[in-house]
Amino acid sequence: MSALAVIPSPTQGVWELGPFPIRAYALCIIAGIVAACWIAEKRWVARGGRPGEVLDIAVWAVPFGILGGRLYHVVTTPQPYFGEGGDPLRAFAIWEGGLGIWGAIALGGVGAWIACRRRGIPLPAFGDAIAPGLLVAQAIGRLGNWFNNELYGGPTDLPWALRIHEWDGGRAVIGADGQPVVLGTFHPTFLYELLWNLAAAAVVVWADRRFRLSHGRAFALYVALYCAGRLWIELLRIDPANTFFGIRLNVFTAVVVGLLAVAYLVWQRGRPREVIHPEDREAGGAAGRDDDDTPVRAGDPADEVPTSADAPAARRAGDRSHDTPGTA
To answer: Do residues 180 and 11 make contact, with C-beta atoms less than 8 angstroms apart?
Structure first.
């Protein structure tokens, strides 16, 4: 294969800044978090939430999410840490890579629930606001796997094949000729998932506007789309993984979680979108709650609250109308 007919991989993923290592994987994770918060802030304020609430919730959700992602990775891939020749202390070395998105979303959701509860914010409505941002964050995070020369698929000679180096300690191994050792060319599953996530984010935004998704249904759509993509991408990967009946564990996870998300979409079909009214909430979230413990009113026909000056009129219109122009 021509050297030009492949996607190159970095030969270094760690740079030393004095005594401090700068890791590309960590930078990609941070960039993804920033992007998710920015997108969620725009969508949350457009729904009537207060500016700055997304960051307040992120203070809880992000640490919980990182912990959950690491726990899932360690539990489902215990051999490097607790197997023969493993090092248990490496289970804490998050900077080396190894975060399971399933655990990150699950425990991150717990952190978000705690923060939302403290502020009187309905978690499903917040989940709908943040859903596309999470997909964009995951897409950016996959660039960290590219820097680490990891999570690739089977060998291929397609024009978009990915060149992979033999890797050790954040850098490519250098051969006797002074050049990085190349293992071969493989399916760039990091790129497949990156592109899938960006496309899924666009679908969630479109469906949310078109069908006025509510009660966590935009978030459920995000989960269903991600699981669908992760299913076929996982089947391409050849990195070591625990299996059941010869099938990778993450394949089972994608199927089960995806089906649960689809079931939730159907179950909540037809419910009107929540409208967030900040003045209905007091510190601690005690005021303005309905029977579902959510301080919202349903049925506002406006998809956005364009400006603070227009907000009162939009709210008055919402209080008079309970029509939902489209459901899915």
So the answer is: yes
pLDDT at site 290 = 41
For helices 123-147 and 217-236, angle between their N-to-C axes, nearest 10 degrees: 20
What Å distances lie between residue 202 and 132, 205, 322, CA to CA?
Answer: 7, 5, 27
Q: What is the pLDDT of residues 96-116, one digit of tens each?
A: 668 889 999 999 999 999 999
User: How many other CB atoms are found less than 10 A from the CB of residue 18?
Assistant: 5
User: CB of 48 within 8 A of CB of 279?
Assistant: no
Place of tokens 């939902």: 324
Alpha-helical (H) ranges within the chain are: 24-46, 53-76, 79-82, 101-119, 123-147, 189-211, 217-236, 249-267, 311-320
- Position 135 confidence tier, pLDDT thresholds 50, 70, 90: very high
Region 308-323: mean pLDDT is 42
Amino acid at 126: F
CA atoms within 13 A on the CB side of 242: 13
